[in-house]
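Q: what does this look like with iron/sulfur cluster bound?
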Amino acid sequence: MMGFEIPDLDAPVVKATNCIIAASPGLFPPPPPEMPCIRCGACAEVCPHELQPFELYWFSRARNFGKTQEYYIFDCIECGCCSYVCPSHIPLVQYFRFAKSEIWAREREKQAADAAKERFELRNARAEREQAEKAERLARAASARTSEKKVAPERPPAVDGPPAAAASEAAATASDAEAIRKAAIAAAMERARAQRESAQPRNTDGLSTGQQREIAAVEARRAVLPATPAGGPGADSVPPAASQRDE
Ligand code: SF4
Ligand code: SF4
């Protein structure tokens, strides 16, 4: 018998509903246990579409869905005659429904994969086309700039008057900006030097009293020494005559 068991009374009646059977355990007792197929052929004799239900059963059970299609599983109208006459109480139609749903699911997956592949190829083609167009645009702009430079006449030298004043004002603004930039760089370098010095470890920390006293004595002796000349410690050692000869 065709149809599905509806587990809930809230299921709606739709346009495709042909018949409703109010079942009862007396009308539809629990099916007897399924037994192995004995290949008696009774199912094939009653099939209205002259299919081979026992072959379809074997291939569905083995998940060989390609073979089920070779045996025309989609010609099965799920009438249930084969299941009804089967002496082994095999729910053949359930096997056929399972095989059909698996084939449909695989077909949907294949269609989705094909669509994704097509989208990916189209996207790659579009990216390549846009890249080529951009390169072409850039090359065209570069050639236009080159030709403009070739045909542009030489500008006459600037004369006194308002244009010269504007030029001198622009030069002054540029020199001010340069001075500000240099001052900012010098300040940054000074900050970096101070930070570096403060980060360096000092070897006068954590000394004993005796060591500190010794350092203080050295510092006192260094304080009374004359200041080092600007030319460095070796500047005095150069004889004046030699210096004059070098000049
Ligand atoms: S009727 Fe049942 S036991 Fe007989 S061949 Fe078909 S599936 Fe097998
Ligand atoms: S359910 Fe399918 S295979 Fe079985 S008898 Fe009906 S049409 Fe044939």
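Residues 230-247 have pLDDT under 50 and may be disordered. The chain has eight helices and no strands.
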